[in-house]
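BUG: 3D viewer hangs when loading the predicted structure for this chain

Environment: internal workstation, default settings.
Expected: structure renders.
Actual: progress bar stalls at 90%.

Input used:
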Amino acid sequence: MKKLLSLLLLLALGCGTVSAHDFKIEKGQFVLDGKPITLVCGEMHYPRIPQEYWRDRLLRAKAMGLNCISTYVFWNIHERQPGKFDFTGEADLAKFIRTAQELGLYVVLRPGPYVCAEWDFGGFPYWLQNNKHMKWRSDDPDFLAACQRYITRLGKEVSKYCVGNGGNVLLVQVENEYGSYSNDRVYMGKIRDMLEKAGFNAPFITCDG
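Structure tokens produced before the viewer hung:
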């Protein structure tokens, strides 16, 4: 009986184990688990689509020949008030990523903190404006403290879906189109470090605009 229970326990533990994937850029191409892969990617933003249509829209994207979906993460729908987070309904980013995974689609995650995307305030929560001395998109301590809280919470929600943790998020973008705004390498480095510390175990990229 003890041997049977031990065997069942081992099987249960084995079923819960997710193997990390090896994804890298090598000799000018993407390589996943030792095999070259071409990412045919399209943009789709989860809060712009009612949740009940996510699967349908992702299936349509796949039918067009895409194997990857890129999405921004919109800070201001997840933290409408300081320290109060919402990841439900159209804000359920984890479910969006899981649905893509179920359909065999990879994801490029673009968590900002600034995203532009023709979205209100570039994705920033409006309460940032309450601090009249805060300098957005810089290494201003107050701004970085707000970013840290957001990124840490975001990591708890979705970092487990990164490729290095066995998931389908292949790339994580730091900021967005920052080269068209400034050239603060200290700020960019700190955002990258926050993402890394929050568990985003995937290659980091950026877009300079």
